[in-house]
Amino acid sequence: MAFFIVYIEEAHSTDLWQVPQNVRQNVLIPSARTGEDRVEAAAACVRNLKIELPALVDGIDNVVERAYTGWPDRLYVVDGTGRIAYKSAPGPFGFKPREMEEALVRTLR
User: Which pTM does this prediction carry?
Assistant: First the structure.
C-alpha cells in the first residue's frame, strides 16, 4: 500500500488570491504557467509544509484534477486495480476519517 499527495492547480497563488495563512507558512506560489513551474511549486509546498508523503504532480492541463475532482481538497482510496474505492466530500469539513478507514480495511482484504 502507498500513500501520496497529488499536487494540482495552485489554490491561493500570489498573483491571484493570496491568503494570510500562506504568508505565515511561507507558501508563496505564483500560478504555474508550465509543467516545470508546477513541479517547482509542488516541491516548494512539500518542503515548506514539511509534508512527508511523496508528491505526484498533475500536468499543466489539469487532467488529474478534472478526472478526480480533487478541487477543493478530497481524500481518495484507490484499490490495487486502480478503481476508486472511496472518495470523500470536499474538505476539510467533508473529511470523515472513520469512513476512509473502513474503505482502507475493505481494500486491504
Answer: 0.66
